[in-house]
Amino acid sequence: MVFGGGSGSTAVTVNGLNALSGFSGNSQVNVTLQYTPSPGRTVGVNGPTTISQGTYPVSNGSITVPISSMNSTYGYHLIVTPVSANGNTITVTNPGSQIGTVGTAINGVQIQATDSAAGQTLTYSATGLPTGLSISPSGLISGTPTASGSFNVLVTARDSTGASGAASFTWTVSPVSTGGAICQVTYTKNEWTGGFTASLTITNTGTSPINGWTLAFSFPGDQKVTNAWSATVSQSAAAVTAKNVDYNAAIAPSGNVVFGFQGTWIGNDSNPAHFTLNGSSCA
Fold it and tell me: pTM, whole model, 2 decimals?
């Protein structure tokens, strides 16, 4: 149950529990009260903070949960699970907020829980997992995300008596980062005996902006760079590195930047054949 908008000390009543599967006939339920601060609506925050956990009596299918010092800008939610006939309680440890990237397998997340009854084997399930992830009966979440977004996950542990506990957290999956991996470089040269100038155009052919760039290549001949403009250029043997200056660090999708340099040569002034931008190959 998710709610918010109130302030100060109040109480929340949940009705209709006797109509839910697993709750019928229960005189008590386990209740976990959590909140997420308002920044969580627009920026990443830690997982929900647990305010209280306890057992509440059910009266005519309803429970009333008191809340003190409620903040009107926070989002609150209740996790309600039935208490087994044996009266045992299962507590699930919240793993906290998780992150991932589309196409990259996650490090397995093992969900942990404790049971107040001795000798019980817990079985785990989950709802709201990112597409491509799954949870094993032993509580291990694994897989490779296939879609980006923010996912509200609820994990539940249940024992053979029917008792259960739950915890909720967010899982944020980012799209594949193109960074500076998609690029095209044009090398235009003006040559004379013993000298040359070169103009290089870097085009961002990807869908994400490039913020800060380093272009690397190697001369196939004996060229030596003597000065440059619109980039900071350094050379070690045949290897050349060009880095952006303050005013041309950003390259928007389909945009480009141009820089150049002057140099000398003796026997071979062939054009470079391969370029990398921020470590990734360019066309």
Answer: 0.44
First to last CA, the chain: 52
pLDDT in tens, 259-278: 999 999 999 999 998 888 88
Determine how many CB atoms are found less than 10 A away from the CB of residue 39: 10
CATH no. of 183-281: 2.60.40.290
- Counted residue by residue, the chain has a size of 283
**How does pLDDT run across 64-93, given as a tens digit for each residue?**
877 766 777 777 778 887 766 566 788 899
In angstroms, rounded to a whole number, what is the distance separating the alpha carbons of residues 39 and 41?
5
Measured over the CA atoms of residue 259, residue 260, residue 261 and residue 267, the dihedral's sign is positive
What pLDDT is recorded for position 180? 42
Name which of 198, 168, 207 is nearest 270 in CA terms: 198
Closest CA to 87 of 117, 119, 131: 117
- The CATH number for 87-176, chosen from 3.90.226.10, 3.40.50.2000, 3.40.50.1220, 2.60.40.10, is 2.60.40.10
d(CA 255, CA 270): 27
